[in-house]
Amino acid sequence: MSYLSLSEIKSGMTLEQVLVSPDGKMVFGQGTIVNDCLLARLNDWKVEGAEVAEEAIEFDFAEIEKIISVVTLGMTDKPEMKKMVQHAAELHMKIETELKRIFMLTRYHGAVPMDTLIHLVDKKIYPRLSQLDSFEQLHTQAAASDYLYRHALDVAFIAGYLGRWLGYGDGDIWNLTLAGLVHDIGKTKINFEMLSKSGRLNADEFKIAKNHTVWSYQLLAQTEFVSTVVLKAVLEHHEKLDGSGYPYRLQGNEITMLARIIAVADIYDALISNRYYHKGISPQEAIEIMVFQMANQLDTHVLACLIENLAQIGMIKIPVLYNSAI
Ligand SMILES: [Fe+2]
User: Is the peptide bond before 247 cis (omega within 30 degrees of 0)?
Assistant: First the structure.
């Protein structure tokens, strides 16, 4: 770590101190990755310099592409190939670690470090959406203690993939990725004890936990970077088409399309993931629950898209009663 003048600070370095705008409305927290947008802001604020970690964090996408071709060709049993696949998993872990830091900063400052989040989407998540290995990577398990961060990252990827598979344009796919990443960021207002409870939440705790959609919305609405479609997707991600969801018990077309996609991504990932109170189930079992128990609650077009694509990459067999059920 060292103090550098503003002209010496470059994109990719990490802030090691908190910087606040002159009007006190915007904060770049410790741990924020510097990007061009942030540098322009610091220039506007007439900041002379800052404490930074100089080692730039960069991901080598050419290397990732090489890894994908290896995975696709089924050559992962060779030792050198195993090493490359492991490298891809390590990159995924690095993104997760960065997201964990963003959630921690949000918890302690009560504000989302949006610049860092947007940099993460732009540079490290969105570019990987064209690579199928990222989707399969979502099916590796994380420790239950890291569920909040791993789940956020998984939902960002799954929602982004669903957007691509459904034929959405780049802008909507980007919005879906960001919405997936932050849909549960309001849970940073819930204490660790409740978040890590090993049993199911009791009625009072569940009532508190259900506020997280509104808290996510409020945290994001404080910033100037988040569009209305992302805000609605976050606020409505627990609404259900049959009106049984929360916070507003919206029905059918009252729920925005992006919120319906986040809902499918959220439920699928929650079912296949290890959590404090349940062990992740297989993609096949998860899809069967979604088809046979939740068909009235979820957007059938979105669910069908997930099923078809999971079947295409061999992760599930299409449920026998699929056609009559949805
Ligand atoms: Fe949620």
Answer: yes
The domains of the chain are located at: 1-58, 132-325
Query: Whose structure tokens read 């949006």?
Result: 114
CATH for the stretch 1-58: 3.90.105.10
- Measured in Å, residue 18 CA sits from the centre of ligand 1 at 29
How many Å apart are CA 88 and CA 2, to the nearest integer?
Answer: 30
Share of the chain above pLDDT 90, in %: 45
CATH for the 132-325 domain, from 6.20.20.10, 1.10.3210.10, 1.20.1740.10, 3.30.70.270: 1.10.3210.10
Query: What tens digit of pLDDT does each residue of 106-160 get?
Result: 999 999 999 899 999 988 888 877 665 556 666 665 666 678 888 998 899 899 9
Helix or strand run (H / E) with residue 286: helix 283-293
Residues whose CB falls within 8 Å of the CB of residue 169, separated by 6 or more in sequence, listed in order: none
Cite the active site residues: 187
Give distance in angstroms: CA of 184 to centre of ligand 1. Answer: 5
Q: What is the mean pLDDT of the chain?
A: 82
Residue-wise pLDDT for 173-231, tens only, equals: 999 999 999 999 999 999 988 888 878 889 999 999 999 999 999 999 998 779 999 99
Contact 45, 21 (CB under 8 A): yes
Question: Locate tokens 């770049």: which residue?
Answer: 28
Q: 156: CA distance to ligand 1 center in Å?
A: 13
